[in-house]
Amino acid sequence: MSTKAIHLELVGDLTSDAFIGAFRRFVARRGRCAHIWSDQGRNFVGANKLLAGDWAEAKLQFEGSVAEKLALDGTKWHFIPAYSPHMGGLWEAGVKSMKYHLKRILTKHVTYEEMITLLCQVEACLNSRPLGIIDDTSTDNVQPLTPGHFLIGETPITVPTPNLQNIPVSHLSRWHHQQRLMTEFWHRWQQEYLSRMQQRSKWHNKVKEFEIGHIVLIKSDNLPPAKWMMGRIVDKHPGKDGVTRVYSVKSGDSVVQRPFNKLCYLPIDTE
Asked: Where is the DUF5641 domain (predicted)?
């Protein structure tokens, strides 16, 4: 809820049993889930009753400290009001960021295993987006803070894959076609994400300029999945009207000049 980290799980249908299976996989990998928020879908309401019954039955089999421990391990379910999906906008937006682009890149049928692999890679991309910076004192190596740090302790990564964008689909194996889908998703989602971070009425109102020392995201079209280019503003180049539209940004060991529309603020301002 705080970091908007996303966990994607593939299920075969929308029954309560299928959801409980997904929930058990989630708990086994991520740890105990103390609270769940959801809408009042029949599969969720049914799963809540089944899980509550399982916990009650498990506690009856033990006494003393074991029963108390089982009570603390239970999950409390919170339902939003019926017919009010807008009240679940926090998680609906996260799922939409995946569904919107996934529906546009899937042009042929994939197997269950291929879909699981694709969703796991998509999850890594979504959880790799920079929220802020970990250490602002380093001038050379800027380490971003991502939702993945709160899940696995580090930024999620994807296994490198060759560029398959210019190869006809008919010449690709199923595995290479799957990796091409991953690359297409990454380019679509990254461009939309950075564009939304830059929404501003720049032709009508004067907006706040970047200051020297600010950490920014640099828009780049050729980055591999789950990789982001970040840099530090080292110089400003104002125009004749005093408005700065070009900045010198240090990224790694090099200093490059980038226009204002290729730079983005981080979602979390450390100041």
From this structure: 173-266
Q: pLDDT tens-digit profile of 73-84? A: 677 888 888 878
Which own/partner pairs from 84-91 qualify as long-range (CB within 8 Å, at least 24 positions apart)? 84/39, 85/39, 88/37, 88/38, 88/39, 90/1, 90/4, 91/37
CA–CA separation, 90 vs 99, rounded Å?
Answer: 15
Task: Report which secondary-structure segment, H or E, holds 112.
Answer: helix 112-126
Question: How would you classify residue 64: left for phi > 0, otherwise alpha for psi between -120 and 50, otherwise beta?
Answer: left
CA distance 245 to 104: 35
* 88-131 pLDDT per residue, tens: 888 888 888 889 999 988 888 889 999 999 999 999 999 999 98
- Pairing state of beta strands 215-218 and 263-265? antiparallel
- 3 state SS of 230: strand
DSSP type of residue 78: E
H/E element, 242: none
Helix (H, G, I), strand (E, B), or coil: what is residue 260? helix
Listed by start position, the domains of the chain span 16-83, 92-271
**How many Å apart are CA 114 and CA 10, to the nearest integer?**
11
- Please give the structure tokens belonging to residue 148: 């993945």
Question: Full-prediction pTM beyond 0.85?
Answer: no
Give 127's contacts (C-beta < 8 A, 6+ positions apart): 5, 6, 146, 147, 148, 151, 156
Locate tokens 């919107």: which residue? 100
Region 92-271: CATH code: 2.30.30.140
The angle formed by the CA atoms of residues 224, 128 and 195, to the nearest 5 degrees, is 75
Give the Cα separation of 158 and 147 in Å (integer). Answer: 15
